[in-house]
């Protein structure tokens, strides 16, 4: 399989990350329509920031994301944008989230570069999360 690279004005790159984050107190609130709306918001943010969501799965108490992002923009800025916008919009559109949680997301998240494992293996892992 040939490796695909992306580029901007001064960098040619292939920077893929596996990212996981949870709602505050790991409450299972990402359901009943929240999960679908969250996916829409994350795709919108990724598109605006020039990132590519390769795989995305929303579980009731956490989010798995496989994403490629420009190294000059950075994974931290992308995750911050995704969590910030989704928290604001979801708490506006689903008022019951405001009564259950002081904030939607925890401050922390997990991120790992995707270099050692084949991309297909990670994609399969994320896809199978719903069936665990």
From TrEMBL:
One of its GO terms (biological process) is DNA transposition. It comes from the Bacteria. Coiled coil: none annotated. PANTHER family: TRANSPOSASE FOR INSERTION SEQUENCE ELEMENT IS200. This is IS200/IS605 family transposase. SMART domains: Y1_Tnp. Pfam families: Y1_Tnp. Residues 12-129 form the Transposase IS200-like domain. GO terms for molecular function: DNA binding; transposase activity.
């Amino acid at each position: 399989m040939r490796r695909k690279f992306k580029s901007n004005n001064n960098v040619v790159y292939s920077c893929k990350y596996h990212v996981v984050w949870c709602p505050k107190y790991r409450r299972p609130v990402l359901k009943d329509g929240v999960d679908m709306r969250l996916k829409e918001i994350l795709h919108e943010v990724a598109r605006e920031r020039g990132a590519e969501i390769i795989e995305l799965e929303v579980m009731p108490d956490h989010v798995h994301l496989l994403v490629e992002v420009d190294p000059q923009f950075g994974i931290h800025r992308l995750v911050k944008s995704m969590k910030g916008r989704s928290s604001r919009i979801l708490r506006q559109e689903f008022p019951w989230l405001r009564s259950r949680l002081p904030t939607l997301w925890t401050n922390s998240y997990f991120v790992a570069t995707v270099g050692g494992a084949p991309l297909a293996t990670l994609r399969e892992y994320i896809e199978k999360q719903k069936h665990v």
